[in-house]
Please model this.
Amino acid sequence: MYYTMVMAAVVMFGLQFFCNQQYERECKSSFTSSMMFIFGGALAGLVVLFIVNGFKWEFTPFTLFMASLAALDGMIFNFCSMKALGKINLSLYSLFSMLGGMVLPFCLGVFFFDEKFTLGKAICLVAVIVALSLSVEKGKSKGGAIYYIGVFVFNGLSGVISKFFQASDFAKTSEAAYSVWTAVVTAVLSGAFLLFSFRKSPMKLSFKAVLCMSGNGILNRVANYLLLLSLAFLPASVQYPMITGGVMIVSTLLSYFTPNKPKVKEWISIALSFAGIMAMILI
Model:
């Protein structure tokens, strides 16, 4: 059941890329458009999560603290992403982002939560890293190392914060309420930034942009909620390599239906990712 939840989240993360791409085509890349994207997505996700939580408000100080950390982490990650994509190509950005999202939670689980380091996990980790490396295209870097290091660190911290919340013995709310509070804090912070930047750089939103923004927010919030639920039963050192490898597989398969068809090395990456995930599950 919990593997099914992880795979459902993986599909949602894969679909997110299409929402992101369509929004960028409609609104271009700017600080205002980025804040609008985060703000609108947080509001859309908040509505869905509030429904999931049965229209209940739950609160503990620890939940609000951890939700605030998660919201800040997401905001900084988005800022670093915006800056990094102006310096390096998309494939190199994806490498840093997905490696961070896999390696940091993996190390946290093994070194701080006594999760076993098995042969299957080692094979999966190596296979996914090699698969990610194959997807990198040559391109000139324009500096800004601090930003793509930030992409690595802050995407990884997302899983670290989720694991710490789930494993903690402090008084806390349900996973759905924690997800609601994360969306609330994100909306408040991004809304404040948006209010400031909108005065200097106003923008108009098309109906398509609103749909993409809302779709991204709902997919992201629900996917992270499912991962938080499964973290109560699956080790972080299992879950996050599965997510990284799975998102690679889903994204590549979905790109087959776009003008940018997968190349041979991308099919090899899929095969390696799938083999690594199976090795972790079976060995």
Remarks:
- The mean pLDDT is 84.
- The longest helix spans residues 2-27.
- Residues 116 and 262 are 35 Å apart (CA to CA).
- The chain is about 80% helix and 0% strand.
